[in-house]
Amino acid sequence: MSNPFEPINARLNNLEALTLEVLQLLRSANQTDTDEIGGIELARQVTRLSAARIYTLVSERKLPHKKRGNRLTFRRSELLTWLDEGNRAEQKGGFEL
Fold first, then answer.
1. pTM of the predicted protein model
2. Phi, psi of 8 (to 5 degrees)
3. pLDDT in tens, 80-92
């Protein structure tokens, strides 16, 4: 006599394998995005600032960057950290008049 739970067990094993595959893809996608290195276009995309403003922040050494010769490079993870550090503290107790 065959096990009536065998089809259910096979489906659960298939779901587990698919879930593990999706998790692995998500983890690799996140690592690729945060480790991305690029030029001014990457900095503009991440910060949503104009090229002129980015160059100003670079010249003031306020924006994380690397420079080799005349070439500026930016790391996505460093730009995201820079943006997170710019959060203002929340005001407690509402507005003051």
1. 0.57
2. -65, -45
3. 999 999 876 655 5
